[in-house]
Design goal:
The complex is a heterodimer.
Chain A (H helix, E strand, L loop, with lengths): L11 H11 L10 H24 L1 H4 L1 H26 L7 H11 L3 H9 L3 H23 L5 H20 L4 E2 L3 H8 L1 E2 L2 E2 H19 L1 H11 L1 H6 L4 H27 L1 E2 L7 H12 L10 H20 L4 H28 L2
Antiparallel strand pairs in A: 1-4, 2-3
Helix pairs in contact in A: 2-15, 4-10, 4-11, 4-13, 4-14, 4-15, 5-7, 5-8, 5-13, 6-7, 7-8, 7-13, 10-11, 11-13, 14-15, 14-16, 15-16
Chain B lengths: L4 H5 L4 H9 L4 E10 L2 E11 L4 E5 L6 H9 L6 E6 L2 E3 L4 H6 L2 E4 L11 H5 L6 E2 L2 E2 L1 H14 L16 H14 L4 E5 L7 H16 L3 E5 L3 H7 L2 E6 L2 E8 L5 H9 L19 E10 L3 E9 L3 E5 L6 H8 L7 E6 L2 E2 L5 H7 L1 E4 L3 H5 L6 H5 L4 H4 L7 H15 L15 H15 L3 E5 L7 H16 L3 E6 L2 H7 L2 E6 L2 E7 L5 H13 L1
Parallel strand pairs in B: 3-10, 3-11, 6-9, 9-10, 15-20, 15-21, 18-19, 19-20
Antiparallel strand pairs in B: 1-2, 1-4, 4-5, 7-8, 11-12, 13-14, 13-16, 16-17, 21-22
Helix pairs in contact in B: 6-7, 16-17
The chains are: A mainly alpha, B alpha/beta.
Chain lengths: 348, 522
């Protein structure tokens, strides 16, 4: 009654073997892998700098100006490192800009400053970090255990943290009067401002955490395939919570840095920084769907954007023109990344 | 290639005979091959569909049904093979081309837009319009006519589809197929979302369609439905046609199940010595229940023993494994490993206790596809090699390389991305993960699905080896001979209950099938 095909020919497995070999990826192409992607970013950054030197000459190429660029990059840079973890883990954190505002306000209230005067200025730092960590934990618990979509949970935090900052500050600017705090952030170390040092330390710590620790490996696993990670015994929910707490902590550090830079706590601090951070992370080559992240790429992304801003300012171009250029860069970078990803998947 | 069994077996009424003799087959697929990276989804499928018939497509999950209908719809391009319509070769480069040729597909997850009206859904993508302005009146009138033809004049054309029942949405989907003047309508498990009365209505509509010369390709797991509505059956297994043109009414159920589950290849399962009498019990499952899935499942597995769970798709066998592993939260009952009770619903507790699961869906549940092989192998153990949370990738690579050599993963490159491996080698990577972990209990769900013949034998040998080294193994497979060959003891699962437990040597394939069917009848 039925038609049963003959047993599989003996060369069948050999054929499959050959087929799978033909799809093997080569690792020789210069634009492939993390190095290739970062190389592209370095080329873009160098091109921007050459453009800056040509158009603005000495004004651009001075050491002072380079430090200005780095100072400008530092707050967004710290936020972007936290964001790299969240995005690599398959999430998104829209609240970081607002949390910068909230933590800077909370750390500069009269009560906090008085306490800092009485004890040590580090109290203000502790306060900002605790506020950032707390906001991040709320995000994390809502997303991991409350199963609220990350976009919505952090959007709610974006709105309410900003509102809370306004309530606490009563829409006033809170001038920092704690001298130790001001001195620390105004200081240089080997000619490099404290803010830049903080960015460097956070970036290096972030790189080690993502690439060299079990935490980083878990982040990649959770972002790459949460079900596989769970079935391998990784506590996916808990780790997801940690990721948002980490991003909140980074935002708290950002809040302290804002306080140091502007010497005032304001509820408008850090507005829209979340978008700059996400843009830097994505341009840097971290996959928005998770599973692959690069700290080096993120740092390069941050530097590209702040250099761009500087070059435009040096040439007296408007902020609006900067915004257009930023948009174009984001799209071009993502289009290039997709090409590279497709090519490496196709195995050519 | 395609044998005309029906011409000689004298089934069906005179209309059928008439059509068979006069018309050439409406649609033929010959030797269709579809290769995906690392897996061969279709490996030479033949299908022949005649005008006015209900042609049923049977096969287990993963047999290639979905891929086949996507090839037919133009959503996938075959790598080899030929499609003939009215005896003429055609290509279907994209879904619109399929519709133009008169091939319409009703996917299992109904592809209607909830926010649009019935008429808008039916004309979605081929709106009736002059100069960009939609002709709502014509669309409404045509919709009404189509719905009446399907016996559903009661559905108003302007009704929002989201407000219709699943059955109503299906009618809309079918009306859309008819609006393209479909000659072949593919229905993927149309009854899955319907209750009994709605199924009767579906069948009435299908009969009317076939009476007007439309061919229906009907996919279902429910054999009783196929008997009621089907004319002929084609059975797929492992991406091949294992039988075609079977009369739907007469072919015995046991025969169909045997074709779906039975051997297409010789099972090269190595013999194993009996489990020593004094072997300690490692895994104890007691009264395990998962509401809506299975109830009161109890069994023990001793060190060095292989226990097989035999049953059909949907019997609860996969859920039993996942619940033992803690991936699902048991409603009642306990799981013990070495006497210690596991926290229900906690995979990490199970892993810590030494249980490993190789899941049914390797790609979506098991692997980090874009990560290198070595990181996939050490996914459960990278923390163990780490010193103070700092990874030791050198140690991970060494451990992975040992496993790659021991299990003969090909190509033997720890840096390769898991995506590029074949199904068999991906399965070896998952096994390696639990070997590195040093599991005392190994749960294998469909260990050889999508695995080619050579790698199958290797996986059987590995399972035997593991047992010999004292692991307790539980195997689930759709292929009954595989379960019987591998296991010392077999549990037959049907409708969420264990209907039989006994030594694998004391039972054969037919007896298992009988038990499965008795279980479903009860």
């Amino acid at each position: 009654m039925t038609e049963i095909p003959a047993a599989v020919p003996a060369d069948e497995s050999a054929r499959i073997e050959k087929a799978s070999r033909s799809t093997q990826t080569t690792r020789t192409g210069i634009m492939h892998g993390a190095t290739g992607r970062n190389l592209g970013l370095v080329i873009a950054l160098v091109a921007l700098c050459i453009f800056g030197v040509i158009t603005a000459g000495e004004r651009f190429a001075s050491i002072d100006n380079v430090l200005t660029i780095l100072r400008l990059a530092s707050v967004i840079g710290v936020l972007s490192i936290g964001m790299t973890f969240v995005i690599t883990g398959g999430g998104i954190d829209l609240s970081v800009g607002s949390v910068v505002g909230l933590s800077s306000v909370w750390a500069s209230t009269l009560a906090t400053q008085t306490m800092a005067q009485d004890t040590h200025w580090i109290v203000m730092v502790g306060c900002a970090l605790a506020v950032g960590l707390g906001a991040g934990l709320v995000n994390g618990v809502l997303i991991a255990y409350g199963r609220v979509v990350a976009f919505i949970a952090t959007l709610a935090m974006l709105v309410s943290a900003r509102g809370l900052a306004e309530i606490i500050a009563n829409r006033q600017t809170q001038i920092v009067k704690v001298q130790g705090f001001l001195d620390f952030f105004r200081d240089d170390f080997i000619g490099i401002p404290t803010l830049v040092w903080i960015f460097v330390v956070v970036a290096v710590a972030g790189w080690i955490l993502l690439n060299r620790t079990t935490f980083g490996r878990r982040t990649i696993a959770v972002g790459g395939n949460p079900e596989a990670a769970r079935l391998a015994g990784i506590k996916v929910k808990r780790h997801t919570m940690y990721l948002y707490a980490l991003s909140g902590l980074a935002a708290g550090i950002g809040g302290v840095m804002m306080l140091g830079r502007t010497t005032a706590g304001s509820s408008t601090n850090g507005q829209l920084y979340e978008l700059d951070a996400i843009a830097a992370v994505v341009v840097g080559g971290t996959l928005l769907i998770g599973g692959r992240g690069t700290i080096v790429g993120t740092v390069l992304g941050v530097l590209i954007f702040s250099t761009l801003t500087n070059v435009f300012t040096q040439n007296n171009l408007s902020i609006s023109a900067q915004a257009v250029a930023k948009g174009v860069i984001i799209v071009v970078a993502v289009l290039l990344q997709q090409r590279i990803a497709e090519r490496s998947r196709a195995g050519t | 290639m395609v044998d005309d069994f029906c011409l000689t077996d004298g089934r069906s009424g005179p209309t059928f005979w008439h059509m068979v003799n006069v018309d050439p087959p409406l649609l033929q697929m010959r030797g269709i091959v579809k290769q995906f990276p690392g897996a061969r989804a279709l490996d030479g499928v033949d299908l022949e569909i005649r005008a006015g018939e209900v042609h049923c497509l049977l096969g287990q999950n993963g047999a290639g049904k979905s891929t086949l209908i996507k090839v037919l719809a133009g959503a996938h391009q075959p790598d080899e093979g030929q499609i003939l319509l009215d005896g003429r070769p055609v290509t279907i480069p994209h879904p619109v081309a399929g519709l133009r040729l008169g091939i319409a597909t009703m996917y299992q997850e109904l592809d209607v837009v909830d926010g649009l009206s019935v008429a808008e859904n039916i004309y979605l993508g081929h709106e009736l319009a002059t100069a960009g302005f939609s002709q709502r009146r014509a669309a409404t009138a045509n919709t009404r006519a189509l719905l009446r033809r399907l016996g559903h004049g009661d559905i108003a054309p302007h009704r929002e589809v989201g407000r219709l029942s699943a059955a109503g949405k299906q009618i809309v989907s079918m009306a859309r197929a008819l609006s393209h003047d479909a000659r072949v309508i593919v229905m993927d498990e149309p009854s899955a979302v319907l209750d009994a009365e709605e199924v009767d209505n579906l069948f009435r509509v299908v009969r009317e369609l076939t009476a007007s010369g439309v061919a229906v390709v009907y996919i279902s797991h429910r054999l009783d439905e196929i008997r009621q509505i089907g004319d002929r059956i084609t059975v797929l297994k492992d991406g091949r046609t294992v039988a075609t043109g079977l009369p739907a009414a007469q072919t015995p159920t046991a025969e169909l199940i045997r074709l779906m589950t039975g051997r297409t290849v010789e099972y090269a399962i190595p013999p194993r010595p009996p489990v020593p009498e004094d072997a300690a019990t490692v895994l104890q499952v007691d009264g395990l229940t998962l509401r809506g899935s299975f109830r009161d499942v109890s069994f023990d597995v001793r060190a060095g023993e292989v226990v097989g769970l035999a049953g059909l798709v949907g019997s609860g066998r996969t859920e039993i494994l996942e619940t033992v592993f803690g991936a699902r939260h048991a409603t009642a009952g306990t799981v013990r490993v070495g006497g210690r009770r596991l926290r229900p619903g906690s995979v990490s507790d199970a892993v810590r206790a030494g249980i490993g699961l190789c899941p049914e869906e390797r790609k979506s549940q098991g692997l980090l596809l874009d990560e290198p092989v070595y990181r996939n192998i050490t996914l459960s153990t990278f923390g163990r090699n780490a010193k103070a949370s700092f990874l030791d990738e050198g140690a991970e690579r060494t451990v992975a390389r040992e496993q790659i050599d021991a299990l003969d993963v090909r190509p033997a490159d720890p840096e390769r991305r898991a995506r590029t491996l074949s199904g068999g080698n991906q399965q070896k990577v998952l096994l390696a993960r639990w070997l590195v972990h040093g599991c005392r209990v190994l749960l294998l769900d469909e260990p050889t699905r999508g695995v080619d013949v050579g790698a199958r034998a290797e996986i059987y040998a590995l399972v035997a080896d593991l047992a010999a080294q004292g692991a307790a193994v539980v195997v689930v497979s759709s292929e009954i001979p595989e379960v019987l060959g591998l296991a010392d003891r077999v549990l037959v699962v049907s409708e969420g209950r264990v209907v039989h437990e006994g030594p694998a040597s004391g039972i054969d394939e037919h007896r298992v099938l009988d038990l499965v069917m008795e279980g479903s009848a009860a």
